[in-house]
Specification:
alpha+beta; DUF7053 domain-containing protein; 3 helices; 163 residues
Length: 163
């Protein structure tokens, strides 16, 4: 039976990084790919859109997978990933070969609360949806939440380094 799960995370992005520079950072797929400690390799996949109208970048990311504890048996899976730039961030669609689809929407929200000590604190928001078989989702939901939470923390560090 098909099912879906959704969750979101948000983090303050303190500092004086201009919004345009931060959005440009979100528009660079390698900044996201580098957040995962499991990535073995990645390459740009052929686009299905004409290059003059392409707004998405398609990648194939090879991740290391531990089938047994302590690295007794490892392997790799190739995950097709599409990054589509948006005005306020990026949309990421991952289709791992386990029968699920992961939709991520990363947005950078401009400062909304007037804080005299930190007038330029933006907010990085990650909204994620998992779609797939209900049994599979039960097995991967906790892992995905933990991974995405570490990715948003890592992206905050990447954005802070832009200062």
């Amino acid at each position: 039976m098909q099912s879906s799960r959704s969750f979101s995370f948000s983090r303050a992005v303190p500092g004086e990084v201009p919004m345009s520079k931060a959005i440009a950072c979100l528009h660079e797929p390698s900044n996201f790919i580098g957040l995962s400690p499991y990535v073995i390799s990645y390459h740009l996949a052929p686009s299905t859109e004409p290059s003059s109208t392409a707004v998405s970048k398609n990648y194939v990311i090879s991740d290391r997978v531990n089938y047994l504890p302590f690295g007794l048996w490892t392997g790799q899976i190739d995950v097709p990933v599409t990054y589509t730039n948006q005005e306020d961030g990026v949309e990421v669609v991952k289709k791992p070969p386990v029968g699920i689809t992961v939709l991520e929407r990363w947005t950078l929200q401009p400062p909304t609360i007037s804080n005299p000590q930190h007038p330029n604190v933006a907010e990085l928001v990650l909204r994620a949806e998992l779609h797939g078989n209900s049994v599979t989702l039960c097995m991967v939901e906790g892992i995905m939440k933990k991974s995405l939470e570490s990715y948003i923390d890592g992206m905050v560090k990447v954005l802070q380094a832009l200062e």
